[in-house]
Design a protein that fits this description.
Order of helices and strands: HEEHEHEE
Number of domains: 1
Strand content: 25-35%
CATH architecture: 2-Layer Sandwich
Structural class: alpha+beta
Oligomer: single chain
Shape: elongated
CATH class: Alpha Beta
CATH superfamily: 6-pyruvoyl tetrahydropterin synthase/QueD
Largest sheet: 5 strands, mixed
Helix content: 25-40%
Number of strands: 5
Distance between the termini: 25 Å
Amino acid sequence: MHFLRSFLGGAKYVYEVGIIDFFNARHALGDEPAHAHSWKVEIKVRRPRYLGEQSLIGIEETRDIMRRLFARYEDRFLNDIPPFTFQEPTAENLAAYLFEQLDKEFRGTEAVLQSLTIWESPTNYVTFRRIQEL
C-alpha cells in the first residue's frame, strides 16, 4: 500500500472499461430499401479508482445489460420499433438512443457511461460521448 500511495501521490485516477458486443438488425433510411447490418457496439464506462481496490466494474454484468437492451432489436426491422417509428434509425440516432438507454442502467452507481460507438460496417462508425469529466 505504501508504494501505491507514494506512486500515486495526490493525483485522481479512474478506471475505464470498454466492452464490445453485437446485434443484427435491418433498417431503411429515406427511400432506400431495407438492408441489414451486424451492428458492433462498444461502450466505455468510468468510475473512480480507490486505493487498494481489487475489483473493477462488473464486465459480465455490464455485458448482460447490453445484451438485454440489444435483444429488443435482434433480427428485427428497426423502423418498426419506437422511437424509430417516428425518427429515422440512422447510426447517429441509434447511438444516441442506445447511450440514453444504457446510461439509465448506471444511475445511482459510481459508474458513468462515457461513450458509445456503433459501427454499421467495418469502416463506418458513430460515437456518442459524454462531454463533462467524471
